[in-house]
Amino acid sequence: xxxxxxRLRDDAGMTTAEYAVGTVAAVxxxxxxxxxxxxxxxxxxxxxxxxxxxx
Length: 55
Hints:
Elements: H1 2-9, H2 16-37, H3 40-54
């Protein structure tokens, strides 16, 4: 029983599958963020903030 508990607690790092899932999640998040930031409303709001700061 002790060997099983030690083996379950041992976490030497992420495996290749975990890296793949993490990479896919990061890419999906980046795509969603890009979609939001490149929308017309956000672009207009950012332009207004920059214009106000420089003007």
